[in-house]
Design goal:
The protein has 147 residues and is an alpha+beta fold. It is 44% helix and 22% strand. It has a 3-stranded antiparallel sheet. A two-stranded antiparallel ribbon has the order 1-2. A two-stranded antiparallel ribbon has the order 6-7.
């Protein structure tokens, strides 16, 4: 007859359980099974070499993986949010880049087709913009007076 001690049933036969064959066939291992309360359990076992005993140690799957699942969920949420921000920023940057290129192309076409000569000199004395008409009219840095 089985005796209940510390919440466990001592003396109960497990010979009819599906995992009993695995316990007898291997010297040690890990398996998943359903515990007495219906909760999934992870059970490690080892057969003792000098004794006719098999030692079983089990833990509820929820207690083993509970913290991992919480961290996994948080990391997935954070990673998904970060990925979304990077994707949004990338799309925004691509859009700005296309607009910038279109604007530069339109400015270039405008500068080349007008009849006036245009040259722009920045604060450092460099010429970032000059059109063909300005060069034809003699607007070249080598001809400019120094000083």
């Amino acid at each position: 007859m089985a005796t209940i001690m510390g919440g466990l049933i001592i003396g109960t036969s497990i010979a009819g359980r599906p995992y009993f064959g695995q316990l007898r066939a291997k010297a040690s291992g890990v398996m998943r099974t359903t515990g007495p309360g219906g909760a999934e359990q992870i059970v490690s076992f080892r057969r003792l070499a000098d004794y006719p005993l098999i030692v079983l140690v089990g833990c509820d799957e929820a207690s083993v993986f509970g913290h991992f699942r919480t961290v996994k969920r948080d990391v997935l949420i954070l990673g998904g949010g970060a990925t979304g921000l990077v994707a949004f920023g990338g799309l925004f940057w691509i859009r700005l880049r296309r607009r910038s290129l279109a604007s530069k192309q339109a400015l270039s076409v405008t500068l080349e087709t007008i009849s006036q000569g245009i040259a722009m000199v920045d604060g450092a004395g460099r010429i970032p913009v000059i059109n063909r008409r300005a060069i034809d009219l003699g607007c070249q840095p080598s001809y400019w007076p120094k000083g």
